[in-house]
Design brief:
The protein is of the alpha+beta class and 335 residues long. It folds into 2 domains: 150 residues, Diaminopimelate Epimerase, Chain A, domain 1, CATH 3.10.310; 163 residues, Diaminopimelate Epimerase, Chain A, domain 1 (Roll), CATH 3.10.310. Helix content is 19%, strand content 43%. The protein contains 5 helices and 17 strands. Strand 1 and strand 2 form a beta hairpin. The longest helix has 18 residues. The chain is globular and about 50 Å long. The model has no long low-confidence stretch (mean pLDDT 97).
């Protein structure tokens, strides 16, 4: 059988969430900026995204990126993130995995036990610090683009009754919902109901609100719905969450850009003092830590600078093939 398409990836998980780094078998993404490269990917190689995300080679909750050149000589890596619905503007767990891959594969040189790596993503430029032991990365901390509250206490009518929802930005826009307010827990037993309600809330907000970044109109719309609950005990602010994003996709990790979005809400409400860490658990029990480290402003709106830290682990190296005779083509999604 002749090979129509062959794509190589290195796969990681960050706090349980998959991340597929595409490093061979795709053309160089065209464009000067990462946003331009993102548009080019949609128009020219979206079939490769489908091949790697869709069944039988992937699944509805798969995530990954096309690696690109940075926007200028000050950057080390660039990337365009993808998922089951298309292309995201930010991905914290993916940034952690990408930096881990870049250092462990020798794409970016290790310069010491704390190695800085600069990454260009669609939402902007991220400064990261990797903790390194020998030739292995033990964790990555990224300093995110400015995060801010877009809408506070938005009233929304849902199938679970009326809700008050905060919308905030952490590289992408997220709606925050206190899970007990809708009679649910951040637990796998409630996952199908959380997915359904997450889709409902996302679509309802998009019908009623024009959610757009004030400086970049391409950064728009609600990307995910974060269902959270507070974990009592201990001296730190401790939350557990699950993020339903894209087309009902479930983040197994605590969601990196979502952590930044939550930090903006917690800072604005005064629940989390600046400089103190948020312990942020995901639905599978993994943890990110997040901190507000500085104040900022976005087009006159108060904002914060956040740092989020987590760890990624190698899960496999793959060569994905699509033959001309395969009637399934680039695949399918059942959910």
């Amino acid at each position: 059988m002749s090979q129509e398409l062959c794509v190589s990836t290195v796969d990681y998980h960050t706090a349980g969430e998959p991340f597929r780094v595409v490093h061979e078998g795709v053309p160089a993404l065209e464009g000067r900026t990462i946003l331009e490269k993102r548009r080019w990917a949609l128009d020219n190689i979206d079939h490769i995204r489908q091949l790697l995300v869709y069944e039988p080679r992937g699944h509805a909750d798969m995530y990954g990126c096309f690696v690109t050149e940075p926007e200028d000589a000050e950057g080390d890596l660039g990337c365009v993130f993808f998922h089951n619905e298309g292309y995201s503007t930010a991905c914290g767990h993916g940034t952690i995995a990408l930096v881990t891959w870049g250092l462990e594969q020798g794409i970016v040189p290790i310069t010491g036990p704390q190695t800085p790596v600069t990454v260009d993503v669609p939402s902007g430029r991220l400064s990261t610090i990797a903790q390194v032991k020998g030739d292995k990365v033990t964790s990555v901390r990224f300093r995110n683009v400015p995060s801010f509250v877009f809408e506070n206490d938005l009233s929304l009518t849902t199938s679970r009754g009326p809700l008050k929802i905060d919308i905030s930005y952490g590289g992408a826009f997220y709606a925050s919902v206190h899970a007990p307010d809708v009679g649910m827990r951040v637990h796998k037993d409630d996952l199908e109901a959380l997915i359904a309600l997450g889709r409902e809330i996302k679509h309802a907000i998009e019908r009623e609100q024009n959610v757009v970044h004030p400086l970049e109109p391409e950064l728009r719309d609600v990307y995910g719905v974060i269902f959270f609950e507070r974990v009592e005990g201990g001296e730190s602010v401790h939350h557990k969450n699950v993020t339903i994003f894209a087309d009902g996709e479930v983040d197994r990790s605590p969601c990196g850009s979502g952590t930044s979005a939550r930090l903006a809400v917690l800072d604005a409400s005064g629940e989390l003092p600046r400089g103190e860490a948020l312990i942020h658990d995901g639905i599978v029990g993994s943890t990110f830590t997040g901190t507000v480290v500085d104040a900022a402003e976005v087009a006159g709106t108060p904002a914060v600078i956040t740092e989020v830290e987590g760890s990624a682990f190698l899960t496999g190296r793959h060569e994905f093939v699509l033959t001309e005779a395969d009637p399934i083509g680039t695949g399918f999604l059942l959910r």
